[in-house]
Amino acid sequence: MSVTLGQLATLVEGKLLGDAQLDITGAAIIRDSQPGEITLADRPELAKELARSQAAAVITNGEFAPAGMPVILVEDVHVAFAKVVALFRPSLTKMTPGVHPSAVVAESATIAPDASIGPMVIIGEGVTIAAGAIIHSGAQISAGCSIGAGTTIFPGVVLYENTIVGAGCILHAASILGAYGFGYDSSSGKHVLSAQLGNVVLGDNVEIGAATTIDRGTYGPTVIGEGTKVDNQVMIAHNCRIGRHNLICSQVGIAGSTSTGDYVVMAGQVGVRDHVHIGDGAILGAKAGISCDIGAGQNVIGAPAISAKEKKLELALVSKLPEMRKQLKALLTRVDQLEKEEELRKTA
Predict the structure, then answer these.
(1) 217, pLDDT greater than 70
(2) pLDDT (tens digit, 9 = 90+) per residue, 255-282?
(3) Are residues 20 and 159 in the same domain?
(4) Is the pLDDT of residue 71 over 80?
(5) Which of 41, 75, 102, 331 has CB atoms 3.0–4.6 Å from 46's, for a disulfide?
(6) What would the pLDDT profile of 323-335 be if each residue is shown by its tens digit?
C-alpha cells in the first residue's frame, strides 16, 4: 500500500515541510529504511545517519534533516511513528469473530458475539469473555475466569481457576497465571502445601510477557495493577500486590507478599525478598538484591541494594584502588626508611 506524505502528516497531527503528494510505501528505522519509506529521528545526532539513508521522508521533533528531505514535525516522534507503523503494518493478531470448531467450550461459558476463539482453545465452566477479546490457539481458560474487553491472549497461555483479566490486556505465549504458590507448612517434619484459595487479578491494559508466571494468592488475590507491563520470564509469587504502571523487566523474581507502589521500575534480573514494599516511582537497577523496604522515588542498585549515588561513588573508589595501593606501598617504604634512619641517629 501507499499513502501520501500529506495524509501521514494529518494522521500524526504534524507540520509538513515538503511535498504533500509524495507517495510513501512503508516505515522503517533509519538503518533499515528503503526508497519510498518514511523513518524517524528524535535527536540532531542522527542527522548524519539520516543523510546516508535511503529514506524518502522523516518524522522529527526538530529541523535537522538533510536539505531537500521532506519532514513531518511533531512533538513526540515515537508516538507519531507508532501510528504510521500501525497504518502500514496492521495488527496480525486480529481473527474472525466466533469460535473455532476445534475449540472446547463449556456450556456455562459466556462469550461475546464479536470475541474470537482460536483452534484447540479450552474454555471451562462459568468463564466470561467480553467483547472483542481474542484467544489464540491452544490457550486454556479454566473455570470461573473472566476476560475483559479487547484483551488478547496468545498461544499456549494457561489461566488457572478464577483468574480475572481486565480490559485491553495482552498475555504473551506460554504465560501461566494462577498456579499454586510456593508455600508449605513444615511443622510436621514434612512439606505440606499451604491453602491455595486465592486467585490472580490483572487490571486494565496490563501486559504479561512470554513464559512469565504469576502465582495465585493463598487466601486473597495476587494483583497486578492497571497499566503495568511485565517482561518475559518474570516470576511473581503468591499474595503480591503490584501497583499501577510498573515496568518489570525480564528475569525479575518477586517473592511472596511483596507490594509495590505506582510507576516502579525493576530492571533485568532484580530479586526481591518476601514481605517488603517498594514505594512509588522507585527504580531498581539491574540485578539489584532487595532485602528491605525501598522508599518512594529511591534509585537503588547492587546486592544488597544501596542508593545508585552511593554505588557510583563506591565503583569510582574501587577503580582507584590499584593506584592507591602503589601510593600506600611507597608510603610504607618511606616510613620504614625514616624509622631506620631514626634508629641509626639514636645509636650514633
Answers:
(1) yes
(2) 999 999 999 999 999 999 999 999 999 9
(3) no
(4) yes
(5) 41
(6) 999 999 999 999 9
Taking the C-alpha atoms of residue 65 and residue 71, their distance in angstroms, rounded to an integer, is 7
The pTM of the full predicted model, rounded to 2 decimals, is 0.83
Supply the Cα-derived Rg of the chain in whole angstroms: 29
Give all strands of the β-sheet with 221-224 in edge-to-edge order.
110-111, 128-129, 146-147, 164-165, 199-202, 221-224, 241-242, 259-260, 277-278
Q: Residues 213, 292: one domain?
A: yes
> Which listed residue (136, 172, 238, 245) is catalytic?
238
The answer to whether residues 165 and 77 belong to one domain is no
* 8 Å CB contact between 245 and 262: yes
Flag whether 9 is in a domain.
yes
Active-site annotation holds for 136: no
Q: Are residues 130 and 30 in the same domain?
A: no
Residues written for the chain? 348
Residue 291 and residue 152 in one domain: yes
Q: How confident is the model at residue 308 (pLDDT cuts 50, 70, 90)?
A: confident
The count of domains in the chain is: 2
Judge whether residue 90 has pLDDT over 80.
Answer: no
> Do 20 and 4 form a contact (C-beta atoms < 8 A)?
yes
Co-location of 209 and 76 in the same domain = no
Residue 132 has pLDDT above 80, yes or no: yes
